[in-house]
Amino acid sequence: MPRGIGLSAVQILGARCGTAIDDGAGSVYFLVPRGANVAGADPATAPLPAGRRTSGPGPRWLVCPAETWLPTDPAALAAALADALPHPSALTGEQVRGAACVWCGKPVQAGLNDVDLGARRWRPSGGASIAWFPRTCRACHHVREDR
User: Can you give the pLDDT of all 147 residues of the chain as single tens digits?
Assistant: First the structure.
């Protein structure tokens, strides 16, 4: 997932966070049980940092593996990812459909000046589940990466 969202999720999870990797190129990876499906995360092969490397450049451990690799609970990770973004009910229509940054509200264009934060599902009170498409401008993404 994008680094800014991943770092926020690590902070939100705290001691509940299992093994996590910062690839040094803008993404964070979480070890989850095989077959787990976490909204907002795409299955990927993580680059493994060397030994107990916890600083860059390049891949580094955000949470080092123990003697056995400790996975993050998928439900806890999904909740942390949801908490790492503004709630869709607090956003404009442009922000919900991915035409504006979820944090500053400035217009974004897919693939040109944005970072895709991954399609999500949201169920308004008493309503049907709807898809929303959070995106951020590169300026807000960099600010959140540096937290």
Answer: 778 788 888 989 998 999 999 998 888 899 888 888 776 566 677 788 888 888 878 899 999 887 667 899 988 988 888 788 888 888 999 999 999 999 889 999 888 888 888 888 888 877 888 888 998 888 877 655 544
Give the global pTM. 0.68
Give which of 141, 66, 42 is closest to 30, Cα–Cα: 42
- Burial level of 122, CB count in 10 A (0-12/13-18/19+)? middle
Rounded to a whole number of angstroms, the distance between the first and last alpha carbons of the chain is 16
* Core vs surface per residue 35-67: b (16+ CB within 10 A) or e: ebebebbeeeebeebeeeeeeeeebbbbbbbee
